[in-house]
Amino acid sequence: MTPCWYTLDPASLLVTSHYNANPEMLPLPAEWLAHEYFEDDFHKIANVARSERGFSTIHEATEGDPSRSLGWNLYVRPYGGDQELLVALRTLTGDIWGVLGLYRNADQPLFDAEECRFLLGIAPYLAEGARRGLLIGEATDPEGLEAPGLVILRENWTVESLTPGVDRWLDELPGGEWKAHGKLPPAVLSVAGRALRTAEHANAPGEVALARVLSRSGRWMVLHGAALVGSGGRRTAVIIEPSHPARIASLLMAAYELTEREQEVTRLVLQGNSTAEIATSLVISVHTVQQHLKSVFEKTAVRSRRELIGRVFFSHYEPRVRDNEQRAILGQPLRGGPLDQHQNT
Fold this sequence. Notes:
By secondary structure, the protein is α+β, with helices and mostly antiparallel strands. The chain has 3 domains: 4-136, Beta-Lactamase (2-Layer Sandwich), CATH 3.30.450; 149-242, 2-Layer Sandwich (Beta-Lactamase), CATH 3.30.450; 258-330, Winged helix-like DNA-binding domain superfamily/Winged helix DNA-binding domain (Arc Repressor Mutant, subunit A, Orthogonal Bundle). The protein contains 13 helices and 10 strands. The chain is globular and about 60 Å long. The termini are far apart.
């Protein structure tokens, strides 16, 4: 079997896309995603991603008997796999950007400790590659209709109903081919599965699942999933919408690999605070603020506060301003953003 590459939303660890060089392994089955997030089993992606050591083999997880895993029997063994090793793609700062799945046939040796150490050694570099790949398509807000879309899924993960226009968002998400083939993106199914898993029964909706996904057009999308309350079969609602510039800030900060303190300093810089004001606000010395700024500049490839503010504005805010300029000319309502227009009533 060829390797499976999964990208994850670092905030929620939900699967947002999947790649395999073998066409027979694509698309990712909806049933597999449902099993991953709805059923109890061994050796799950999110569990490996959250684990301190960052890797796991199916033989280790099942104490030498992979047949104990229903997911293994249904979705891996039929393709000829006899072994599976999952490795978290975790950066040196601890953000998880993906998981790599490696497989071996029955006539091959088990994954050993030396191989696991090697993979753990290169995992941060693979994670860095995934992170940089996302930075190439940093979030923008191009012109166009921005209304959220709603998808209602039945208990068997088929679509019950859609709101008008949501097919556009479905096609923008990685792995989505809704218009052409009726195929839902993995991110939609994983959010729905997570939401349904937290619901104890039909009258207890459980938690709202959340994922942020970089679309094919280079913008961040936010997905909210919730189990619906009612009689009959269990249903799940998934809302899909473009992310507001302010809401993608945390993900962009993670993509630039800023520490928590560096993120705090950066937010205060963007608000126009001086070095002394930042020091007072964070109860740290001016020298410490300067050291944090130096690190932020290096990570974001700028040389000054001005360049930092300009980079953030022109990459993530200017498209919204230009769109609102056109809306004003056309007499259309302005969309929320960094420069909201407040009219007196």
